[in-house]
Amino acid sequence: MSGPDPRLESSAEIRARIDTSKPHSARFWNYFVGGKDNYEKDRELGDQIQEIFPGLVDVARTSRHFLGRAVRHLAGEQGIRQFLDIGTGLPTADNTHEVAQRVAPESRIVYVDNDPLVLAHARALLTSTPEGVTSYIDANMYEPEAILEKAGETLDLSRPVALMILNTLGHVGDHDQARDLVNRLMAGLPSGSYLVISDSTATSEGMIAASAAYNKSGAIPYHVRPVEEITAFFDGLTLTDPGVVPVTSWRPEPTTDTSIAVDAYAGVARKP
């Protein structure tokens, strides 16, 4: 089941919220993965940062590939049929619902984002197999209880859910606050649910310089963290092998180029 969500704003209301005078992380990331949903300011910043740190393009692309492997593992090997994807970003190839429903057509997916450009493209995400469901919530991660309440209209929160927060937690500058938000979201999900996180990390001078340049651009700041702070998001959960590792090293497939050194780490963990 799919179709336009009557709660989505009108196109005019959405366009009025889009600020093209400053770069934005969703559009910036879209530029790096080869998308077309970005503006001049996003491309200018992207080109500037590629000069500082060309490796950020690899971070964007390999992080996207991690999403596919994680969803295939959860849907295919762990039997997860419900996904809550927070910080959705702009639609590209192999979105969460496409990967999950390719494995299990009955999968149900809820996307959450509050960027108006993402919202404007939400209808492109609201596709589904006849057996499954996709929906979209216009909200931000600072409202975990509201997200869970709205997600419960599509997902059965008494059954396991995979909570996916990919390349999003860096927007929360305070690590304790970010951990609290993750904990509150996981508190609303039952035993057997999973947490999936990937994020850029402060593991090279190039990435640290790229982050500093991005944060000076006028965009909403994005903070790269030490690996141990990424690992701390999984406290109290059971990490799936191989633990918190570079995105290219998490259950690589034959097509995964593990020779690329990337400043992005990821992990998947189960709620006991």
TrEMBL record:
MF (Gene Ontology): methyltransferase activity
Short name of one Pfam family: Methyltransf_19
Key word Transferase present: yes
Gene3D superfamilies assigned to the protein according to its UniProt record, in alphabetical order: Vaccinia Virus protein VP39
UniProt entry tagged with the keyword Transferase: yes
InterPro entries: SAM-dependent_MTases_sf, SAM_dep_MeTrfase_SAV2177_type
Keywords of this entry: Methyltransferase, Transferase
Gene Ontology BP terms: methylation
Protein name: S-adenosyl methyltransferase
Chain coiled-coil ranges: none
